[in-house]
Amino acid sequence: MPRKQIAQFEVPYLQILDAQGQIDPQLDPQLPTDELLRIYRWMVLARATDQRMLKLQRQGRIGTFGPSTGQEAISVAAACAMGDDDWFVGAFRELGGRLVRGEPLTSPYLFYNGYEEGNLQPESSRQRLLPINIIVASQCLHAVGIGYALKYRQERAAAVAFMGDGATSEGDFHEALNFAAVWQAPVVFISQNNQWAISMPREQQTRSQTLAQKGIAYEMPSIQIDGNDALACYVAVREALQRAYDGGGPTFIEAVTYRLMMHTTADDPGRYRTSAEEDEWWQQEPLGRLRTYLTAKKIWDDDQEEALQTEIKAEVDQAVVEFEAMGNFLPDIPFDHVYGTRHASIEQQRREFLTNLEQEAGDA
To answer: Along the 364 residues of the chain, how does pLDDT read in single tens digits?
Structure first.
């Protein structure tokens, strides 16, 4: 019997704003002016916060963190497209999206200064925002569990999971996509393909021509988008959410972008990539691209930009003042949450920890 083809696949690509900020009129989603300006403001705030955190880290005023500069369009546009009942399940490079969902501006400063209180959400809020997740790809499984629960409860809502390109090589990622597809759980997976898994380039990290095709293996709609195009990010996530709401199951989105800064502030990207490569991607960064579009639509100008920058600088400055005024956190709080009840061995470790702190303070 001759061989025959039993399946054929393709990966669609979406770009609405090109690298110069020019719109494809046939794909223009015609978002309301208020929504466009909302997206832009959150992106500018995310960039300003990120860059201020970098300065604080270099001054020794916060600890190591992973900058999100250059990747603002993905999480901000996704968060703006999400409904109030959706769940935001992030990794650690979604600063803008977390702020959109209602995270206090002081939280990232606290978290990256070693205070778990940075993950604490206001009691009056209902952001459905999970804490920052550092373990690569493990949040994908969390999102599927949430999605399964939403389906079981018959809630018209979805979980949106963010990950880097390196996460698509982890077992947790594949287990998550498999279960999401089998259960037809309402989950939107977004891989932020920023070209580097720490110092490992994209072409050495996986042989797949696209990351999007990894979703096809699990029989879910999959698409590659320009991750520096806020409009493409918004449209792709909105379509995926609508599919999830309607019972169509999960979607996988590969958002092609670039990490313009270091992997974390403990990293030196100059050891593994060139400044020419970085310069090329700076020409495609998302803020300038969206601003060009807004200016062309005559809904933004230089005076508005200057006023926004002044307003956001004051907002960020105030957040830093508030953060640095906080000093009433107990250093041994983590020991309270190892188990539901206290254990002798943990209490012994607590005593040793506090004794060491006292000794270090005396040595200083």
So the answer is: 789 999 999 999 999 999 999 999 999 999 999 999 999 999 999 999 999 999 999 999 999 999 999 999 999 999 999 999 999 999 999 999 999 999 999 999 999 988 888 888 777 566 799 999 999 999 999 999 999 999 999 999 999 999 999 999 999 999 999 999 999 999 999 999 999 999 999 999 999 999 999 999 999 999 999 999 999 999 999 999 999 999 999 999 999 999 999 999 999 999 999 999 999 999 999 999 999 999 999 999 999 999 999 999 999 999 999 999 997 888 888 898 889 899 999 999 999 999 999 998 877 5
Query: Is residue 123 located within the same domain as residue 216?
Result: yes
* Statement to judge: residues 222 and 349 lie in one domain: no
Task: Kindly state whether residues 354 and 276 are assigned to the same domain.
Answer: no
The reported pTM is 0.93
Residues forming the active site: 259, 263, 272
Residues 272 and 353 in one domain: no
Q: What are phi and psi of 187, to 5 degrees?
A: -130, 135
Whether 6 is in a domain gets the answer: no
Q: Check whether residue 347 and residue 312 sit in a common domain.
A: no
Beta bridge partners of 69: none
Q: Give, in order, the Cα–Cα distances in Å from 261 to each of 47, 132, 164, 192, 249.
A: 12, 19, 15, 15, 35
Q: Which domain holds residue 345?
A: 333-364
Overall domain count for the chain:
2
Does residue 235 lie in a domain region?
yes
Angle of helix 33-58 relative to helix 286-296, nearest 10 degrees, comes to: 150
Comparing CA positions, the residue from 317, 285, 288 lying closest to residue 305 is 288
343 CB contacts (<8 Å, ≥6 apart)?
A: none
350 and 288 share one domain = no
Residue 52 located in a structural domain? yes
Token readout for 159 is: 């979980």
DSSP 8-state class, residue 120: P
Q: Which residue has the tokens 């960020």?
A: 316
Do 117 and 211 fall within a single domain?
Answer: yes
